[in-house]
């Protein structure tokens, strides 16, 4: 009788697989009110692309130069694109995991020399953890730290090198070395505006890579260590209805890369020789906008404008010595 009474007074159970998740941290519908982490229970998938067409470079003094050609012919043009698949998950109230997998299509053309070479392949994936240390609402304040690991997975061989330059048939799409980056970021909302700031350091480890040939000790493969990098950024974002418009400035200070043979003991790169001219500093300006279509759907667009760079000592490794050209970006973000 007791079981019968309970059955008659208990409401019908319903499946909730596609209903709103009650355990999720609240997420604002507008960009300036959002914290720098995704928040507990949210899952976000991002699909994006970056396209750069470079027709020039920075010399060793940081002066902008154009690739020249004879009259009536087009000089060198370097196309560098990235197609990204990004995944974010708010694993706890103050923690977020993220993962990014890039693919690259690159092409170098030069009408004067008859050059037309390109290839497509996997880049270097990144995985990271964001932790929020301080948060307030109305107005929003968010202070986080970010730890990121870059894993070498892209193509790092340009060919066999046997038989001269004709056998070098592909572009390098990976440094072939891992990175570990640590940064701090902050956001402060002031009415319809948000101010962003960041400070970080990227430590680049050494590894034996397929594109470095060591000739002094007669080793076919050499050890290479990209220059580590310090970064500082500052930006502002303005909310105009469902669209947020902003701009960021990013300063980078890069050390010289080094190469050579592997050393014995616990420090395999202690005898590497610096490659002069591969370090320096750069500054980029990045205007962008975010269209908040719904709480679970955003559209992003932006352009990267290089204002200062230095050298092309490690071309075509854009991550280490980027060419001079604007980068146009676009992405969509879907979250549940």
Give an account of the 3D structure.
The chain has one domain (41-335): Porin, CATH 2.40.160. It has one helix at 2-9; strands at residues 43-54, 56-58, 64-66, 76-89, 95-110, 115-122, 126-136, 141-150, 179-190, 193-204, 207-209, 222-225, 229-240, 243-254, 258-260, 273-274, 280-294, 297-308, 327-335. Mean pLDDT is 87; it is low at 1-19. The protein is mainly β and 336 residues long. The longest helix is centred in the N-terminal third of the chain and has 8 residues, at 2-9. The chain starts with a helix and ends with a strand. A twelve-stranded antiparallel barrel has the order 1-4-5-7-8-9-10-13-14-17-18-19. Strands 11-12-15-16 form a four-stranded antiparallel β-sheet, with no helix packed on it. It has a two-stranded antiparallel sheet with strand order 2-3. Strand 13 (229-240) and strand 14 form a beta hairpin. It contains one helix and 19 strands. It is globular and about 65 Å long. It is 2% helix and 51% strand.
Task: Give the SSE map.
Elements: H1 2-9, E1 43-54, E2 56-58, E3 64-66, E4 76-89, E5 95-110, E6 115-122, E7 126-136, E8 141-150, E9 179-190, E10 193-204, E11 207-209, E12 222-225, E13 229-240, E14 243-254, E15 258-260, E16 273-274, E17 280-294, E18 297-308, E19 327-335
Antiparallel strand pairs: 1-4, 1-19, 2-3, 4-5, 5-6, 5-7, 7-8, 8-9, 9-10, 10-13, 11-12, 12-15, 13-14, 14-17, 15-16, 17-18, 18-19
């Amino acid at each position: 009788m007791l079981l019968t009474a309970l059955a008659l007074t208990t409401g019908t159970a319903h499946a909730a697989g596609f209903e709103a998740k009650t355990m999720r941290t609240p997420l604002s519908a507008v960009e300036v009110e959002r914290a720098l982490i995704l928040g507990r229970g949210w899952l976000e998938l991002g699909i994006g692309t970056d396209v750069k067409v470079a027709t020039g470079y920075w010399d060793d003094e940081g002066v902008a130069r154009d690739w020249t050609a004879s009259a009536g012919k087009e000089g060198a043009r370097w196309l560098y694109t990235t197609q990204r698949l990004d995944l974010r998950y708010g694993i706890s109230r103050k923690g977020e995991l993220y993962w990014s997998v890039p693919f690259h299509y690159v092409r170098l053309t030069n009408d004067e020399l008859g050059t037309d070479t390109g290839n497509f392949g996997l880049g270097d994936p990144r995985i990271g953890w964001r932790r929020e240390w301080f948060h307030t609402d109305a107005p929003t304040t968010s202070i986080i730290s970010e730890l990121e690991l870059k894993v070498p997975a892209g193509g790092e061989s340009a060919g066999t090198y046997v038989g001269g330059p004709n056998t070098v048939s592909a572009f390098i799409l990976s440094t072939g070395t891992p990175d570990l980056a640590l940064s701090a970021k902050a956001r402060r909302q002031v009415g319809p505006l948000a101010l962003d700031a960041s400070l970080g350091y990227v430590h680049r480890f050494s590894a034996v890579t397929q594109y470095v040939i060591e000739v002094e000790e007669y080793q076919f493969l050499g050890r290479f260590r990209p220059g580590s990098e310090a970064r500082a950024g500052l930006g502002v974002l303005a909310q105009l209805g469902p669209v947020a418009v902003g701009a960021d400035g990013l300063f980078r200070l890069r050390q010289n890369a080094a190469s050579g043979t592997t050393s014995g003991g616990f420090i395999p790169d202690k005898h590497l020789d610096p490659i002069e001219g591969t370090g320096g500093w750069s500054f980029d300006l990045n205007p962008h906008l975010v269209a908040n279509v719904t709480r679970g759907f955003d559209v992003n667009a932006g352009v990267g404008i290089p204002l200062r760079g230095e050298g092309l000592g490690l071309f075509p490794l854009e991550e280490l010595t980027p060419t001079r050209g604007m980068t146009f970006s676009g992405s969509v973000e879907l979250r549940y």
